[in-house]
Amino acid sequence: MKETKIKGVYKDKNQLFTKNPSDLLGEKVYNEKIIKKNKVEYRSWMPYRSKLAALLLKNAEVKINPDFKILYLGAATGTTVSHISDILTNGSIYAVESSAVAMKKLLKVCKKRNNIIPIYCDAFHFEKYQTIVPNVDMIYQDISQRNQSDIFIENIKTFLKLGKTSVLMVKARSIDVSLKPKEAYKKVTDDLKSAGLKVLDSVDLSPFEKDHAAIIIKN
To answer: Which has the minimum average pLDDT: 122-136, 147-161, 177-191?
Structure first.
């Protein structure tokens, strides 16, 4: 087990892991594999279940520090959120989700992890959680909507500290079903550049996710 460039993320062969907190030993979030090495418990971070894990396995440059405050837009049921929670030993995640069904499952994860702040809201209406969320070190967005670029841009303008990087997960078919995936990704990167953001990288997530790409920006 070897620690990666991100403190708190480990790699063994071609698998990623995060440490299970000492008060949650034996606990699983989504039926992931748990292994023990040298009296430490690690949770397998599955790239076919988490786009962030897929991105990291593609050796993309993503910076996450243990003390980061992260705004997560589209938190869903908490699969990826739980691994970020493992990493942020001194930080916190503001997890925004608009689906009532997904939020019920997310709340179960939050009850056992005090560094996750769940927010039941549509990320397009960021003003509704503006008094809850402070300036953050990173925004991570995974929302399959046509206006996902606008949501990302407005949240960055409102919450992201200057000079920080963020990640937008793009589902090509949510942008425009008539476009080829690469054309859809280009459309999104053009939107981000037009908003004054610097696009650092665009990473296709295949074979883990079909017709998905991660766009990494800096403001």
So the answer is: 177-191
